[in-house]
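Sample entry (636 residues):
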Amino acid sequence: MNEHIKEYCEKFIESKENPHYAVFLNGKWGTGKTYFINKLLEKYADKTDLKKKDIIKISLFGVKTTEEIDLKIYQAIHPILSSKGMKLAGAILRSAIKLGTTVDINGDGKDDISISSNWLDEIKSKGKVDSVSNRLIVVDDLERIDSSFSPNQVFAYFSEIITESDIRVIFVGNEEKIADKSENEKNEYLKIKEKTIGIEFTIEPNKNDAIKSFISELSLTQTDFYTQKLPYIMDILKCDNLRTIWQALYNLNLFAKILGDVIEEEDKEEVFEIFLVLYIQKNLEEIHKTDDIESVLSGYFVYHKPYKEHIKWLEEKKKSQKYFFPDTLRNVPLRNIWVRLIFEGCYDKKWIVKEYSKELEERKQQNKTPKNLFKLANDWRNLNKDEFENLTKTVVTEFENGAYLNAGEIVFFCYFMFLYSNWRLIPNNIDDIVAKFHKLIENKKSEIEPLKYWNSHEFIYHGYGLNLDNPEYKKIFSEMALINKNNLLKQSQDSINKDLELLKKDVLEFCRNILHVHGNSKYHEFPVLSFINIDTFYNILQDLSIDNQLLVEESFEERYGKRYSNGNVLPEYADDYENLKKIAEKYNADNVDFLYDPQAYEKHCIGERWMELVKYFEEKLNLKNNGVNEGNEKCI
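Predicted structure, serialized as tokens:
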């Protein structure tokens, strides 16, 4: 991809004729400019006319003056001053000025300059031009100079070198950042750039070569997985930042070493892919600690989109389809570790291994007795006639007897029976299957275990995509979706009223249950406040401490988007309005006379917060006030 740039730079460096201009390698941060220049300079490792010692590579990061450029070149030329220790020991140099120390610049055994108060001028006359003749200077991080300095001054500085010597100069930088100035500064920059730069190239990220180099440098195993998977991940996530990829691989290497021999071979690729997807998006600020991990991973694995694009698409879908149930990954490996690992950098081996081992044991327990329905779905191609007939009869009998009472299992059963019937693998016709479905629904409707995310059955049940082209199956699917919604609603109603008892014992856990982003997401998209007997709820609140009453109120602020600036009340929460208003009214009615009573005053303040939440709710959902008392005295 950048081969023509490499060829030109080699000719520029090796040319016997003096070009009298510089080359500019432009590119966004992380696209591999430094990687490119380092690969280019590998050729000049004492194997050509240009020796390695003749190459001066400096970074302008944080440079404030032309004198500091002098110093960087001086350090690069002199073997002692170019050492890491000396580069960090600026104070030593400053002390040396006072001592009048002499230094041999070009290594001929003679003192070229004396470090004295006018040493910078001597470097300019002897070090910068004479001693660096026939050398190459690579000037990296052009855009990272101090804000008090300007690229114009840098170009002016090197323009003198280029015109007065046979030195070749290659600039490396991100012009997007360099030219991010006022119009006058931009125009001035372009003028002096035109005089200094003879040709400019834009470095494009060469991801395949870079990935191979990273893999080699980190000595990663599973080379094929990384070389094939990483370009795919980068395409989906629209990431061309090679620095981010390096950082992701470096940290994944740490993570992989922690899991070591503990992780099952079959889990490695899935777990490592999840790590890369999350880490890369975190680095790109595509995702944040508060985002839902399942939703982030569903965006990638299910919809093949980066998270922000995925969320925008979901919002548009929800607006256009009244009953929209997004496909969601339910079984995320190592679900409990990702937030702390990716966002907090917690690479605690004991904790990670413990979480994985616990999850592995749970998975093994679940897989000990796989249901016949899934045996049939997985193995039917490998069964002979008798085996297939016997297993099918067993599955049908189990279905009729209520062995499959998960909403996903029911549509899964019907889907496969429809397929087998169409393929004439079973004697049952479509009407028979529909009749069995309706008979089960009639007898077991209230017992059906709902799925929290309806279409997630595609991924829970062996990844089969369910085709809705068949009108009869589509009717079953739609009917089951409605039953799922109603049962999930009933389940939430029962659960939240049980949680009122929990509120008496563990306020924090109650609050976690009603929160989505910072909690357990137990009631996400359900109007739980509308399910509660508000008198019971209010009475329990009054028995709590002031701090705990406030904690509960703040949790509802966060649930409805008021507390953490996401600023949205989900339309599904609209039914909460009446009970929300009742809580505010009860607080205000019970604490009218709060003078000289600290407890009553505190409760009055909490009531004010409930009322502010009611007003916020009304504003966001365009609801009428309906008589909420607005005249109470505000808390100071």
